[in-house]
Amino acid sequence: MITLPGLIDPHAHLREPGATHKEDWDSGTTAALAGGFTQVLAMPNTQPPVTDGDTLALALTAARYKARCDYAQYLGAGPHNMDELAPLADRSAGLKIYLDQTYGELRLNDMGLCLAHFARWPRHMPIVAHAEGRSLAAVILLSALYDRPLHLAHVSRREEILLIRAARQRGMKVTCEVTPHHLFLTQNDLSSGRGEVRPRLATAADRDALWGKLEVIDCFATDHAPHTLAEKDGPNPPPGFPGLETALPLFLTAVSEGRLTMDDLIRRMATNPRRIFNLPEQAETWIEVLPDESWEIRAENTLTRCAWTPFEGWQVRGRLRRVVLRGSEVFRQGQILAPMGTGKNIREGRVENRE
Ligand code: DOR
Ligand code: ZN
Fold first, then answer.
1. CA distances to 113, 300, 307 from 23, in Å
2. Which of 9, 11, 13, 179 has most ligand 1 atoms within 8 Å of CB, for mutation?
3. Whole-model pTM above 0.70?
4. Is the peptide bond before 17 cis (omega within 30 degrees of 0)?
5. How confident is residue 50, by pLDDT bands cut at 50, 70 and 90?
């Protein structure tokens, strides 16, 4: 048995408000604990999207009553809300800017609007961009022009990881995350509906380039994006995969195969996200893992409401046994022990750390 720090997922879609048939703050944070995550940062593309004080209050009220692990909620950049967001920044996980196609309506098509968000958003709070290909290059330019840190979500292609490496070599303050699905799957692995995800699954050459540039990858983020099986297999399959309960076993398997060290895993799933997103240490918090236990991933054994996984039938090595959160046992051998409301809002009552 080995002990690791509580994991941090800087990128999860928990679907509340608005789509609680896919997931809510209860089922999403249950899945988080079952995956070894003790802190999750929730994305703002809910219904309605979290883009002002009222919608932030809506999400945080649901979270306060239901969350079983610690959390913070992102604010979404819209075409008209740059002035409104700045005063809310300290209560959020950070600002999320969508520059490419995603699920839901949140998207900025105009770099002028993006510039206005960079100019107004407080310097001490994180900015995360969903930017692919050329929009990735454009948003890196904005971060250089404003000389402020930028975190790039779910990098999926060779050209992108090369661009980020080049920016970093020139001293730019860019960090990035990669998802398990872009590291373990390619465009040939799933049927067309189930395989829908943004960014799209890429080629084997792209996947191999990500593994080859592991030193450029700061975080592993799940981009847990639950949609029901009926929706995925229906006429308009929405993009997104669940990921909270499969990330740790997939990466532990990579450790057992020598593709990753345990230290690489801890840095990308705990230490780096804590630093990049300025998250507090969680006292008396850890997870226990059985590194040699082999098992098969099966959706029927998962706790996410969406009830499917793109990794169905995968043989993995390494199993989560126990999670202790702030001194209390919250997960043991498949059972969630934390009641709803156990989770704390990471940004509530925090000591501000302004630049
Ligand atoms: O595949 C995706 N699903 N990509 C996104 O950017 C959003 C996410 C979702 O919310 O379903
Ligand atoms: Zn996402």
1. 31, 16, 10
2. 13
3. yes
4. yes
5. very high
